[in-house]
Amino acid sequence: MPDLRSLIDQKHWLIGDQVFAQDIYQRELETVFGRCWLFVGHDSMVPKPHDYFTHFMGETGVIVQRDGAGRIRGYLNKCRHRGNIVCPYDRGNAKNFSCAYHGWVYSDGKLIGVPHSDEAYAGGINFDEWGLVEIPKLQSWGGLIFGCWDPDAISLDDYLGDARWYLEHFLLREKLGGLEVIPGVQRYMVPTNWKIVSENLAGDHYHFMVTHGGFVEALRKSEDKRIALTGVSTGGRFHAFSVALNHDHGVPHGIFQLRSGSGQLETDLTAAEELGPEAVAWVHERQRVLEEELKDFKHKPYSFQGGNIFPNLGLTGVGSALYGKAFMLHHPRGADRTEVWTWCAVEKNAPAAVKERARFVLMQRFAATGMVVSDDSAIFERIAENLNTPPSRQWPMHYAMAMAQEGEDPRPAALAGEPQRWPGLLTQTFQETAQRDFYRYWSELMNTNPAPAN
Amino acid sequence: MRRVATEVQIEIEQFLIHEASLLEENRFDAWLDLLADDIHYFMPIRESVEQPAGGAPASSSGGFPLYDDDKKSLALRAARLQSRLTPSETPPPLVQRLITNIAAAEAEQGGYYAVRSNFLVHQERRGRHINQFIGRRDDLLRRAGETFQIARREIQLAQTLLPGTISLFF
User: Fold this and answer.
1) pTM here?
2) Is the separation of the CB atoms in A434 and A257 below 8 Å?
3) Residue of A220, A376, A381 to mutate for B, most B C-beta atoms under 10 A
């Protein structure tokens, strides 16, 4: 493996192409995806005992299931006998998983059946020792399920750190009834390295007006205001920031478009009026609960639009009451392939018209057919074409935006009256602090050893 | 449902071929004119889920579809495709469409036809990125004088993992 210190110049913040190369990739699967807490779903995807869905942690296939006793557990989707996939379906409900190769049967992770076991294993086989491999750490936090292969990993609470405050108040909203994930996941390939996508979600708002210029132009011209009325706040009455979470002291999650001021609320109310009084009441109720929760803060954000939970969970659509919330998981599939899985969640207790609008808006922007992701994807695939082609890779890429401003309070005078108490390092919208933190932590992880088997 | 007369079958085939060529030529305004004002344009995701033995592969129960559009939102998507500021369409990808297996029947309602067709859409970007989308469409066509309008279209891809994002109409 190349020396990462020479690839990532942390003084001038220049990063060499080799961080996206194949020889790095295998180690990444072991360290980054072998040690981090990885998003594997949401409670509402397995409401009943024995509901399950199959999933990936890095490239590793897993099953997440609510067991007979109601606890959510995760297993390697791999028969202990010869390694065949024991569950070939995307989701469903099953008490047992039976391997289609030789017929070993598992229930709640335990091996319960081996065909012809007396004959085949004359000396006996200890069923207790040959159950499915269980993901050693699996935990639901506010309904979000994370799993981790490292038995010595820090707690999920510590892993999320500063992110908890933002997820709790602006995404999960449990006091309003929380989220429900609409069944089904959209899956598509993007021919690029997973980090190109994840660092974008961590805080690249800089690209929006350029990459999505055609979309923005179409929104302006269109008679269809359903989509425009969720993203763009009225000028002057809102401020937006980026936030580098756990900056300098932990796992680098990033969020973009943290919005304060009344602009987004006004936009949401305008959009809700079209849907009727119930929808308007919902937007008010949502705001009442938020203000109650944040009553100790003189200035409160209204929402944040999206972000990245390290390493590869992208979030978007969080910014508006009428916008579906996307969980976008960027599964690595080789150094230059990423498999995107997108779920749409809606606020569970929202009126039907609000849920319907939220789903529609997210689909228009962030489904595999979405107008936003199509442009991002076109850019990401072109970046990948350019990586690691000698001699071009001798010239590193520029990650030094807004280094001088880092640590300054970006809030305008009107908001700066009280100390900054929102968690994380608040920065101006155009920044690369979150991206620098991403690669700083990534290179630390790459220098650790793979997690031991437990 | 009754199969249509041969001359109507030919008319419908010609209509679908004409539609495909409009899309190949990026003539989106002319394409939008083929759609009824109240069109429902729907494409569910496909999934691998457990089925009774011998059952057809399941389509999603609705949920989070790829398209669930009306004419207004289709027009917005078309406007984006026509902007010169759209990276996925600049330079314009090469697109070729094969429309086959066209089976038309008279719908219950007079003047309407239920038409099933298969498609293969090939898209190449800049000589490097080739994506193919394959599936079938169930259309409800409405007779409109010498031609037809598409009143409903449900698209089923034969793909659970898409080769890329989709900025195409089917």
Assistant:
1) 0.96
2) no
3) A381
